[in-house]
Specification:
Layout lengths: L2 H32 L2 H7 L1 E3 L6 H6 L5 E3 L4 H14 L7 E4 L12 H6 L3 H16 L5 E2 L23 H16 L12 E5 L18 H8 L1 H8 L4 E4 L3 E2 L2 E2 L4 H11 L5 E3 L7 H5 L5 H11 L4 E2 L3 H11 L5 H17 L19 H14 L1 E5 L12 E4 L6 H5 L14 H9 L3 E4 L13 H8 L3 E7 L20 H9 L5 E6 L7 H6 L2 E4 L7 H9 L76 E8 L3 E2 L5 E9 L5 E11 L10 E10 L4 E8 L1 H4 L1 E2 L5 E2 L3 E10 L2 E9 L1
Parallel strand pairs: 1-2, 1-10, 2-3, 3-4, 5-6, 6-9, 12-13, 12-14, 14-15, 15-16, 18-26
Antiparallel strand pairs: 7-8, 11-16, 17-19, 19-22, 20-21, 20-25, 23-24, 25-26
Bound molecules: alpha-D-glucopyranose.
Length: 734
Amino acid sequence: MKAPFLLLILFSFSVQILSAQQDIEKRVESLLSQMTLEEKIGQLQQGWLNSPNYEEGIRDGKFGSFLNSGDIETKTRLQKIAVEESRLGIPLIFGRDVIHGYRTVLPIPLGLSATWNLDLVQQGCGVAAFEASQQGIHWTFAPMMDIARDARWGRIAESPGEDPYLVSRMGEAMIKGFQGEDLSSDKTIAACAKHFVGYGAAEGGRDYNTTLIPENELRNIYLPSFKAAKDAGVVTYMSAFNDLNGIPATGNKFVLREILRNEWGFNGFVVSDWASVTEMIEHGYVKDKAGAAQRAIEAGVDMEMVTTAYAHELANLIEDGKVDMKYIDEAVKNILRVKFALGLFDNPFRELKGENALLTDESLETARKAARESFVLLKNEGILPFKKDFEKIAIIGPLANSGNDQNGTWAPDGRGEDAVTPLMALKEKFGDKIIYSEGLEKSRSTDNDFTEAVKTAQQADAVILCLGEEEIISGEAKSRAFLNLPGNQTNLVKAIAETGKPIAIVIMAGRPLTFSEEAKLADAVLYAWHPGTMGGPALIDVLFGDYSPSGKLPVTFPRTVGQIPFYYNHRNTGRPATNVENVDIPLGTPLDPKGFVSNYLDVPFSPAYPFGYGLSYAEFNYDNLQISSDKIGPEDKIIVTCDVTNKSDITADEVVQLYIRDLVGSVTRPVKELKGFQKLIFQPGETKTVEFVVGPNELAFYNYENKLTVEPGEFHLWVGPNSAEGLQTSFAVE
Ligand code: GLC
């Protein structure tokens, strides 16, 4: 196609978008001009089915949104009241936590991130959006874009992990999956970048706890994923619970107005988290609801989730001249803008498929693909993949047949009975060649009689041990001070290991756990996160070699909880730790023989498994790392190429990763930072020359003056299979 013609098309397309936006602005202004103060404040209120007299309230224009608003019939009834009985007929926007699927449950977001497959994650969120929108839901409170470096924090399950680059790319894919190309379509829903901001930095990994994040760290680590969300076109944000540097995020003008609005130009709307407006009283930041309402609206929270500080206090604050009307008008316009973009005014009652949209074969196949690509092979001493001509395989453990647990946290519309568990899938495929014993009923069970399980193992050629965490101890308000396998699972592993049978441990959990003792007793370890509805069939795909595992860790796995916070993109310190294995001081030795460096005495510095790590059934070779120049200007780009070869006789995916290190900066820089990855399929024996471009987007950081800049100096660059290995080269920015 000739360039001029293409330009003409692009131009006309952007003109169309512009005119649509101008049209919406006109409609927003026109509607705002008709609204009373009470109706404006009503738009800022999100209710739920426990809100008192909510039908009368909707009729009086006192609600703009509902969350968790029941079935289609209920939503239709509420919408009819809003559209047909209220004075201005402004439609409600219905929100719901569709975090990793609606009825077809995908792997938890930490598992989705472990796929490093952006197209697949986008496709999966498209399935979630379709299922949800066909139930009358307009808006999901996802994706969670919080950087999570602390496995004690239960909500690490909902995060795409510890790295700003990976979390940003995953968030973009999720937003595109949820919002699609056309927000007014009946297959898409509005997304919500949450929790803005810094929630994952809760001290001690204790949920809702205080976060102290210097501005430079905010800008280099915690804000980039939220900026990526804005650039991806997310139409809502959710303000966070946490106290951020002494000012609760929900009342924090610096992040909500200075950064999100003034620097980034965001023009959608911000919803508070559940009761996070009035919780500012508990924080000790305001003394009453009036103070909470004033701080939140002035900071930039447009909609209050379920509490009623806005509803009860804003009118008085306006009348008393304590709050400027411009804040109310701005908030109302932000909300109306999204409602128009969603097409709610033009089409408040969509034709809905309801149950017929759920659990379709296509959706289930997407969930199965996402699950199998999320699995991370951490150890394999030759027993995987299992041969299909085995006599008997035993499957044992509390996660072998628990649909509800494998769905994981934040799957409120998923059903355990829809989940295909590992036991069900194995029985379906291999019949009586599969024998089963639960070993322990639940992950936290403390029973100590494993007679039955041992007997079952003794009858088998090999054992699949399904261990991990129940879903109820993962997610919000589920922080754990220890990361070991809960209950008596370790002794179950020991009992099975004594049979001498080959063991493949499969761990289903919502966070990194510590299991070095158990891993030593197993021949293979596969981390399955909480894999969702199709976890069982996906497990068979991988355990029996129909798919070679390709998952890579989106978070560092510590050896022990005592190492936390522990993340790969750490700073170097003036006395960097050494990777010595034997770190202790021998008895009777007066001085530390290893010098004064940042090691622990009782555990090696290295993680159990590094960020980006994951084995395959194939063996990949990295060779011939080339860069197009070893000296560039701050605006220039480098072409990086590396030959990757699949040395095996099977087809397999590999996630080729690119890391950099900025050796010297006006603030100290991480020892390594992920700046590119590509997930590629390799035929047996195939070599691919993988190409990356490295330029200002990859090299810039917020410097000492908090200005985004590329500073001159030496850089190291790696291309490899994870953050701990790879071919290295270097270049300089002049
Ligand atoms: C919860 C969570 C938030 C969720 C909201 C609505 O407390 O913090 O992520 O979207 O309330 O359920």
